[in-house]
Amino acid sequence: MLAGLVLFAAIGAPLYLGLTLLDPTSAKPPILTQVSTLPGRLAYALATTVLLLIAAAAEELVFRGWLLKLTAAFLRRPWPLLILNGLLFAAIHMDPNLDAFLVRMAMGMGLGWMTLRLGGIEFAIGAHAANNILILLLVRPMTLTDPPHAFEPSSLVVAPLMLLAFITLAEVVVRAAPLRRWTRAEVVPT
User: Fold this and answer.
1) Distance in angstroms (rounded) separating the CA atoms of residues 173 and 171
2) For 11, which of 5, 96, 161, 170 is 20 to 30 Å away at the CA?
3) How many C-beta neighbours within 10 Å does residue 103 have?
4) Which residues of 51-82 are buried (b: 16+ CB within 10 A; e: fewer)?
5) Measured distance CA(18)–CA(15) in Å, rounded
6) Distances from the Cα of 166 to the Cαs of 14, 24, 111, 160, in angstroms?
7) What is the pTM of this model?
8) Which CA distances in Å does 158 have to 51, 101, 148?
9) Is the Cα dihedral 120, 121, 124, 130 positive or negative?
């Protein structure tokens, strides 16, 4: 889990921060706007990290733990299994925006690939948590609902790139012996 958290954060933090800084319409990172003092920011970061680790673990246990195993009994090939898992993962978030649905579906598929390829959900929990933590610290604060908005065509680029990033990260872990040892991954042929 720690490996997924660290590796995804190392890759994702510069990307999310860069996207935020390059977009002239984006607000300042929430870590800078939600609380004004250094101790407050540290507490915000710690609370965000702890709570999102728990949330990511719960979602991964349901979607890549229980549901992936259940649907694998009916869908023997990996891609239909990943597509179904991604669709259900995106649907459960009940976001009214199609662009957010596509990105979450890609994320669900990528986390499913990690789980299948690495032989367990631990790495996916860490990567999922790191993604969510980075969003809440660098992109936007947490809200209970996202208001409907116009479709953002950029999601047609972001969603496949996110899927590719998750697959690539899993494949790097599988192919790099030091990372494979660190994660204790049980490499599963696809």
Assistant:
1) 5
2) 96
3) 23
4) ebbeebbebbeebbbebbeebeeeeeeeeebb
5) 5
6) 16, 27, 7, 10
7) 0.91
8) 26, 12, 19
9) negative
